[in-house]
Amino acid sequence: MKKVAILAAGYGTRMQLISPHKPITKINGISLLEIVVNNFLGLNFNDICIIFNEDEKEMDKSSLECLNKPEVSHFYKSTLSSLHSLFEISRNISFEKHDHHIIVSMVDSLISKMDLANFAKFCDTLRPDQSAIVVTSYIEDEMPLTVKINMRNEIEGFDYPMESGIFVTSGVYCFSTKIFPIVSLMINRHEIKLRNLLKELIHNNFTIKSFYVNKSLDIDRPEDVLSAEKFLNEISI
């Protein structure tokens, strides 16, 4: 079974209006992190690693029962960006020879459990050197990362003008472990932002496959909670 990393080291400043820490933001009475982790646990993923920032040591974890599961581990490291969080994950997870990929999810990225299950199956078809990103045409994010996809469902590039045939990333990825030397190189160059890594991978001729879902949500603002509650209610029917 593939390893999973959940990046929860951001500070979620805007969400602090309703929750002191983004991972424990309640969606229909359940913590955001609990929802994300339980989706993976429900699909029998058995090696899930979470990175928190240092301030989250003080977080009330009473609503995070997932942290007590033997399949779940976590550590604390304040980072400059999601790129740095991925770098720290690569240093804190032990990879075996057969571990060709790791699924990475932002703590604030929601897709349906069915879409996640289908994405996991899709990832099983990737070559060891290939990566994949969940994309959608549903846009509610303020600053989405747009992608252009070719006829082979491979991503050609990022940051295209919003127009017909352009999709956006959903914050859920399947990375080949072969990208980690590139991650380390970018950290040494003082690069920031995960989107810069994605562009670097395309520049270095890494293949990134796309996996389309009808809808995904990025929980960044207090008003996003209502959208998330409606979304989860819809997909549970």
**H/I helix tally:** 6
Give the total of beta strands: 13
What is the subunit arrangement here?
single chain
Sketch the topology as an H/E string, one letter per element.
Answer: EEEHEEHEEHEEEEHHEEH
Decide which structural class fits the backbone.
alpha/beta
CATH superfamily: Spore Coat Polysaccharide Biosynthesis Protein SpsA, Chain A
**Overall 3D geometry?**
globular
Low-confidence stretches: none
Strand residues, percent: 25-35%
CATH topology: Spore Coat Polysaccharide Biosynthesis Protein SpsA, Chain A
Q: What's the structural domain tally?
A: 1
Helical content (DSSP H or I, runs of 4+): 25-40%
- Mean pLDDT, nearest integer? 92
The separation of the N and C termini measures: 29 Å
Verbal overview:
The strands form three sheets. Strands 1, 4, 5, 6, 8, 9, 10, 11 and 12 form a nine-stranded mixed sheet that branches. The chain has a two-stranded antiparallel ribbon with strand order 2-3. A two-stranded antiparallel ribbon has the order 7-13. With 237 residues, it is an alpha/beta fold. The chain contains six helices and 13 strands. The model has no long low-confidence stretch (mean pLDDT 92). α2 packs across α5 (194-203).
